[in-house]
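User: For a reading group we're discussing how well predicted structures match intuition. Take NAD(P)-binding domain-containing protein. Before you show the prediction, I'll give you the sequence so everyone sees exactly what went in.
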Amino acid sequence: MSTVVGIAGLTGKFAQCVAKELYANHNVTLKGFCRSPQKLPQLAMEKYQIEVIQGQFDDEAAVRKFVQGTNIVICCYFGDPDVMTRGQKIPIDACVKEGVPRYLPIEQKLAGVHVLVGGLIETFWSDFFQIFDSHTQTISYWGTGDEKWDLTTYETAAAYVAALAVDKNASGVFRFRGDYKSVFEIKKIYEEVYQSPLHLKPLGSLGELYNTVKKEFGKDPNNVMAWAPGCFAYWCTNGVAHLGDKLDNEKYPGVIPNDMEEFLKSHKKEDIATVDRQLGF
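Assistant: Thanks. Here is the predicted 3D structure of NAD(P)-binding domain-containing protein, as C-alpha cells, for the group to look at:
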C-alpha cells in the first residue's frame, strides 16, 4: 500500500520539488493544499496524480479535509508571521483530530520532523538575496569574507524531505547540507568552473549588517525586500544558525547531495541568477 503524503502550500517552488521527488522515487499518493489551485498547471496535476484541496491557511474545515486519509503532512508555507505560526498550528491540530501519525516540520502532539538545510543555493545566486549581481559578475558580502554558508540545492533538500516522508521511523530534528563554503571559496570555484573572474565587494561588518537590517525593519516591517535579504545573510553567516558537523546526510545514502561546484557545472554562467525561476512544475 502506498504512503499518502499531504503537501500544504503546493503552489510554492519547494513544495513542487518535493512532490516531483516523491512521485519519481517513492511509492506514494499525493494530496495538495493551497488557496489558488488555478495557479497549478493542469498537466502537472494529471502527471503526478495530485488531489488538490482548496482553502486559506486559516480555513480549519478545509485543512481538516486536506489531512484526512494522509499518513504524513508536509507543510511548505512561506509567508508572514501569522502564516508561519498560526498557519502551522492549524494543520497540526487537524492531524491530531484526524489521527494523522506524522507532521513535517513541526513536532507537537504527534511524531514530527523538522528539517534544517541552511541557505538554498539557487536563492543565493538569485536577485532575492541581493548578493550576486549577474551584470557585473560581483558578489557583495558582509563580514570578513571568511564566514561560511551552509548551502543546499532545492532538489537535494527536496530529496531528503521525500526520504523522510516515507521513513515511518523518522522523527525529531534532521540537518542536511550540500556544501559549506565562504564567499572566498565560492569565488575560487566559480572562476575554475567558468574560467571567468568573479568580483567581490565588501559592504561592512556583520555588526553593521545587523544595524542596517534593524533600521530598515524599523522603517517599515511590511517592506520585506528592504530588510529580509540582509536578515537571511546575517543569520546564515554569523554562526548562530550553523548546522554544525553532526549532519544526517549519511542516514539516507540514496540521496546524493549537490555541492556548489556541481551546481555551477550544471548551469551556464548567464543562467545561474534565474535558475530558481525554473524550479517546480
